Amino acid sequence: MKFPVRALALVGVLVTATVLAACSSSSSPTPSSTRVEISATEFMFDPDPIVVPANKVVEIVLANGGVVEHDLTIDSLGFALKVAIGETKTGQIGPLEPGTYEVYCAVVGHKEAGMTTTLTVQ
User: Fold this and answer.
1) Which of 57, 55, 54, 51 is nearest to 34 (CA)?
2) What are the pLDDT digits (tens) for 58-111?
C-alpha cells in the first residue's frame, strides 16, 4: 500500500503536536485557582496581609529570603509549608471560604518575635 507524502507529513505533524501537548507543563494556575507569592524573612511575611479570592484553590509559593529556616502555618486550615534558607516551595489549599485566617511561622520563637500575618479570603 502506498501513502501520499502529504498524508504522511500530516500524520507526523499531528503526532508531534500531540506528544508536545501531553508533555508540556504550565506554571500558571488554572481558572479555578489563584497563585500567591510570599516572601519570608526575619521576622515577617510579605505581602502582609495576604489577600486571595474566595472559592478557589490557592497555590502558595513561599520563598525564604532570610538567614534561618521559616515556615508558613495556618492551623485553622491544616496547612503548613516549611522552607529552608534560600529555597522556595509551593503548596495548595482550598477551595477557601470567605474569612480571615491567622498565619504564622511555627519555627520556635518566630511567632513570638512577630512573624505573623493574616490570610483574608474575599
Assistant:
1) 57
2) 999 999 999 999 999 999 999 999 999 999 999 999 999 999 999 999 999 999
Q: Is the pLDDT of residue 2 over 70?
A: no
Give the C-alpha separation, 29 to 92, whole Å.
11
Cβ partners under 8 Å of residue 92, min gap 6 = 33, 57, 58, 59, 60
Report the C-alpha dihedral over residues 11, 16, 21, 27, rounded to 10 degrees: -160
The dihedral through the CA atoms of 82, 86, 89, 93 has a sign that is positive
pTM of the model: 0.74
